[in-house]
Amino acid sequence: MARNKIALIGAGQIGGTLALLAGLKDLGDVVLFDIVDGVPQGKALDIAEAAPVEGFDATYAGASDYAAIKGADVVIVTAGVPRKPGMSRDDLIGINLKVMQAVGEGIKTHAPDAFVICITNPLDAMVWALQKFSGLPTNKIVGMAGVLDSARFRHFLAEEFKVSVEDVTAFVLGGHGDDMVPLTRYSTVAGVPLTDLVKLGWTTQEKLDAMVERTRKGGGEIVNLLKTGSAFYAPAASAIAMAESYLRDKKRVLPCAAYLDGQYGVSGMFIGVPIVIGANGVERVLEVTFDAAEKTMFDKSVASVAGLIEACKGVDSNLA
Ligand SMILES: NC(=O)C1=CN([C@@H]2O[C@H](COP(=O)(O)OP(=O)(O)OC[C@H]3O[C@@H](n4cnc5c(N)ncnc54)[C@H](O)[C@@H]3O)[C@@H](O)[C@H]2O)C=CC1
Ligand SMILES: O=C([O-])CC(=O)C(=O)O
């Protein structure tokens, strides 16, 4: 059976990590694409030379021409710029929107049948714009954020409870901004909701609130530490989980920025919600019920994303 082809648009910090993880997980052959000539080629060769040591068989190529992504099964987009300390993700809109136009046209011409995962920030607006520029069916394009935000929350919870990360589940929904929605009622240790664990004395409400807040600001915490860019290991691992679910038809239920057509009372936008990812792309949206406080938080987050989309339309009148 022919190997799958994975195209990585953007060969920076996340792109390089994606390329390595794709090999380690035997997901398929990898093409790294970047506008900076030499970088995708150099990273491709470096990882290909790691393959004999790690024992995976995959071809690696680097390119600065979109023709190289032809026939890709999965495209993961990290092209653009990351933020630096003092910036918000939203400050990236002007520059990254133009990048999404070029990437969208490249995908439309060379890989229109791919399952596309957008990572570029500000995420919920960029995946919306990428869908418009590429014309992809809305079940074949998603944004990566919820898996990462949930993984951060899971890490903090596992540390607090001194349990395996494997036994901690979490759902962080909404947009990928500081008003994202970590849902404590739907996050568990071995199936027991966090709200019950507070009652059982495993933690206090104050500590839980602090972990929720740390999750919301998790991206900024790493930007302030790194100073030159933003997180890349956990973002890459998160997107690889999504790609693997598609390529292996695993039908995992993952929180992703998905196109909503009435679900959660939202239409025509990409928002972080739990979805089933299988061979048909986004196969199902899981609509969880919110209590009044959760709904208020979710609606606030949706309103922020709507504001970003309006800002995109202001920058590029073709999107209006
Ligand atoms: N959705 C999420 O949860 C997360 C999103 N991000 C975002 O992911 C993006 C990438 O982050 P990093 O890999 O750390 O940045 P990076 O700067 O290391 O890599 C970005 C790459 O994109 C390339 N690039 C720029 N314009 C391009 C174009 N028109 N076509 C092709 N390539 C182009 C650059 O040359 C660079 O190699 C940023 O926007 C960052 O904010 C980062 C972490 C998490
Ligand atoms: O915070 C950033 O700029 C990068 C990002 O989205 C994250 O790490 O969650």
Automatic annotation (TrEMBL):
Pfam families: Ldh_1_C, Ldh_1_N. Residues 148-304 form the Lactate/malate dehydrogenase C-terminal domain. The keyword Cytoplasm does not apply. CDD domains: LDH-like_MDH. Substrate binds at R83, R89, N121, R152. One of its GO terms (molecular function) is L-malate dehydrogenase (NAD+) activity. InterPro entries: L-lactate/malate_DH, Lactate/malate_DH_C, Lactate/malate_DH_N, Lactate_DH/Glyco_Ohase_4_C, Malate_DH_type3, NAD(P)-bd_dom_sf. It catalyses: (S)-malate + NAD(+) = oxaloacetate + NADH + H(+). The active site is at H176 (proton acceptor). It comes from the Bacteria. Belongs to the LDH/MDH superfamily. MDH type 3 family. PANTHER family: L-2-HYDROXYCARBOXYLATE DEHYDROGENASE (NAD(P)(+)), L-LACTATE DEHYDROGENASE. Catalyzes the reversible oxidation of malate to oxaloacetate. HAMAP family: Malate_dehydrog_3. This is Malate dehydrogenase. It comes from Methylobacterium oryzae CBMB20. The lineage of its organism: Bacteria, Pseudomonadati, Pseudomonadota, Alphaproteobacteria, Hyphomicrobiales. The gene is mdh.
